[in-house]
Specification:
Helix content: 40-55%
Structural class: alpha+beta
GO biological process, one term: vacuole fusion, non-autophagic
Oligomer: single chain
Radius of gyration: 45 Å
GO cellular component, one term: bounding membrane of organelle
Number of helices: 30
Shape: elongated
Pfam family, one: Vps16_N
GO molecular function: actin binding
Protein name: Vacuolar protein sorting-associated protein 16 homolog
Strand content: 15-25%
Length: 680
């Protein structure tokens, strides 16, 4: 059977499957090694492929380094490398190659070939077993040799691993050999083959009928229990035992370690954490409490934290739970990760009690319990919703129901999902899930109730893409905020959609207004005229909008005239207003055409006079200006003078001021102010 991919199994059998890439598919997988965050596979064509993150699995091909099967290989996880990238150590010939995604480097060692290799839990040391039966321990950069131990075995071990960070354990059939840092060794006998699993502070030995843990005795435990120990912790423990028996030597022992009493209390306290036997834990805690009573100040939290940690460890070590953690493992794991492992095993009650004991939030435990309940419950949806809401209770304010609703939806219980979302306090969590459930109208209502316009816009754009126009218009109609935001969106980029919405909603005048805006934005004249005619007809159907209808018709006539003017004058007039059209015609010298536009659109004499003097002044047609001004004296000269002064034509302005002075009356009075300005 060829292996071409991998699966991540949960403890209850559910799994997620991923591919290991084309090489694995074409040739199969020869061997695979796993580390905390990913894995590396060796394919049958001797290529290395890596998955560096199980959360977001992507296949990464490592550099080509092999032409045949290696003697052995191991992984250095990214957190232990100088580069911060995954590295693989491969034993080939007599040397070791370090392979990453870019290159393969020969470490130029000559002690090989190596048949087994293993990295220490802290990533600093490497244990290698040579073909001639020697154990060589070296730093992972191969710069420092730490140990060289001969096993006198012609046969290589089945497994080499680490016991903590200061000893190496090798396994042959029926035998386990533990080698210390100074060449000391100890041998254990087993029936048959076992499997060894390294831990941060020891090694688990799993046989066919039991699981044992081999570790170096913790230093604090040795300080307390070692025969003849004179350490402060041992003396304090001895003093406590004398105190229990009512012996006066208790006081003598306390006096002997008075200056080291804090150290003694710390030692007994930590030894209690490392102890697995509940009776000895109790004795060590009593000894620490006894010594603490003779200190003026000792952190109460330190003692309480250790008691809580011991209670947690004793609870998870119980055979019903089956997690025999040590104190060092618990600290490395952290309580949060321990709680995650408990809830993955569905020990929700214990997880909640640990959260309460350690002062941690229990929300994630309750959420996971709810999700598991949803997936496995036989109750109807209404009953299940009531059970979940009652169990979570009012005292867990702020708990998110989104994950519960998502689990319900994925298990096909849509009604339950919708009901649970009603209890979700964050609208930003409600809306996306309702969208995925195709409950668009409910999602829109939730977005509106939240008052978050971004959420409302999100829903509007989502429905616009997913729904037919009639269905979309039906849902947003009657929801003022949604309609207002939709109108704002359309005005910025989709007037036609807005026009259709108004028409569908029987708002003919608004539809006509949108039609005018849309028509004026068209590039082709025929399309503009067509759109404006439709709008004009819509306006004409309502007696209150006769004026708008007339204006729209005038705009059509203006567009048509501007088309003719462009053809006759070879200048652009499109998109100009009536006034701008007249002004440009005068500026170009087409006075007759300007007069025709004035007549066709009933432009007043006053406005036409104003447009013409501005055009004549801008074109510096002084003679024509003078002639036009005299012919239209009823409009006076003030506007002419103001315009001339604004463009800097002061000499021309002076001429018209003098005409105002000669005219006498009101014009003479108005001229006085201009005379003072022109004199300055």
């Amino acid at each position: 059977m060829e292996y071409t991919g991998f699966r991540i199994y949960e403890i209850h059998g559910e799994f997620t499957q991923f591919s290991l890439g084309q090489d694995a598919k074409d040739y199969g997988v020869l061997e695979c090694q796993i580390w905390g965050g990913g894995l590396v596979a060796l394919t049958r064509n001797f290529k290395l492929v890596a998955i560096t993150n199980f959360e977001e699995p992507r296949v990464q091909n490592l550099a080509d380094a092999l032409t045949g099967a290696p003697h052995c290989w191991t992984i250095i996880p990214p957190q232990f490398t100088l580069s911060g990238h995954l590295e693989v150590l491969i034993s080939v010939n007599n040397t070791v190659l370090v392979v990453d995604s870019n290159s393969a480097q020969d470490q130029l060692v000559q002690q090989g070939p190596f048949t087994r290799m293993s990295m220490s839990p802290n990533g600093k040391f490497l244990a290698l077993f040579t073909a001639d039966g020697r154990l060589w321990v070296v730093s992972t950069d191969f710069q420092k040799s730490l140990a060289d131990f001969s096993t006198n075995s012609a046969e290589g071990p089945l497994q080499v691993t680490w016991c903590g960070v200061d000893s190496v354990v090798m396994h042959w059939e029926d035998t386990i050999l533990m080698v210390g840092p100074f060449g000391d060794w100890i041998k254990y006998t087993y029936d048959g083959v076992v499997q060894m699993v390294p831990e941060v502070d020891g090694v688990r030995i799993i046989s066919s009928d039991k699981c044992e843990f081999l570790q170096r005795v913790p230093t604090v435990t040795e300080d307390v229990y070692k025969i003849g120990s004179t350490k402060p912790g041992a003396i304090l423990f001895d003093a406590f035992e004398h105190f229990e028996r009512g012996s006066p030597r208790a006081d003598e022992n306390i006096r002997n370690i008075k200056t080291d009493l804090t150290e003694a209390v710390d030692t007994c306290l930590e030894a209690a954490g490392h102890e697995l036997d509940v009776g000895r834990q109790r004795d060590l805690l009593k000894a620490a409490s006894f010594g603490k009573a003779f200190l003026d100040a000792y952190p109460a939290d330190k003692f309480a934290d250790m008691c809580r940690a011991i209670r947690v460890l004793n609870a998870v070590r119980h055979y019903d739970i089956g997690m025999p953690l040590t104190y060092d493992q618990y600290n490395r794991l952290t309580p949060n990760v321990l709680i995650n492992r408990l809830i993955q095993r569905h020990h929700h009650l214990l997880a909640v009690r640990i959260c309460e004991s350690l002062g941690l939030s229990r929300n994630r435990v309750l959420i996971h319990w709810g999700c598991a309940k949803i997936k496995r419950s036989v109750h109807d949806e209404e009953t299940l919703a009531r059970i979940i809401v009652e169990k979570l209770g009012e005292d867990d304010a702020g708990i998110s129901y989104m994950e519960l609703a998502k689990a319900a939806y994925e298990s096909g219980q849509t009604k339950l999902a919708t009901r649970l979302l009603d209890f979700e306090p964050q609208a930003a969590n409600q809306v996306p899930l309702l969208m995925s459930m195709k409950e668009d109208e409910i999602a829109l209502v939730k977005a509106i109730e939240s008052g978050d316009t971004d959420l409302v816009y999100l829903m509007i754009l989502h429905m616009k893409r997913q729904l037919s126009p009639p269905e979309f218009y039906r849902i947003i109609a009657g929801k003022p905020l949604a309609v207002s935001l939709f109108e704002s969106y359309c005005r910025q980029g989709d007037i036609r959609l807005l026009r259709d919405f108004y028409y569908q909603d029987d708002r003919r005048i608004e539809s006509a207004n949108a039609g005018v805006v849309e028509a004026l934005g068209e590039g082709e004249l025929d399309e503009r005229v067509k759109g404006l005619k439709i709008a004009a007809k819509a306006f004409a159907e309502d007696k209150e909008f006769v004026f708008e209808s007339k204006c729209t018709e005038d705009q059509i006539r203006l567009l048509q005239q501007q088309t003719v003017l462009e053809r006759e004058t070879a200048h652009e007039f499109m998109n100009l207003s009536v006034s701008e059209t007249i002004f440009k015609l005068i500026l170009l010298g087409h006075a007759n055409r300007a007069a025709k536009v004035k007549s066709d659109f009933k432009v007043s004499d006053k406005r036409f006079w104003w447009l013409k003097i501005r055009a004549l002044i801008q074109s510096h047609s002084w003679d024509a200006l003078e002639k036009f001004a005299k012919a239209n004296q009823k409009f006076g000269y003030v506007g002419i003078v103001d315009t001339l002064i604004s463009v800097g034509a002061l000499a021309q302005a002076q001429k018209y001021v003098e005409i105002m002075v000669r005219s006498g009356g009101q014009q003479e009075k108005e001229a006085q102010g201009y005379l003072e300005l022109l004199t300055k």
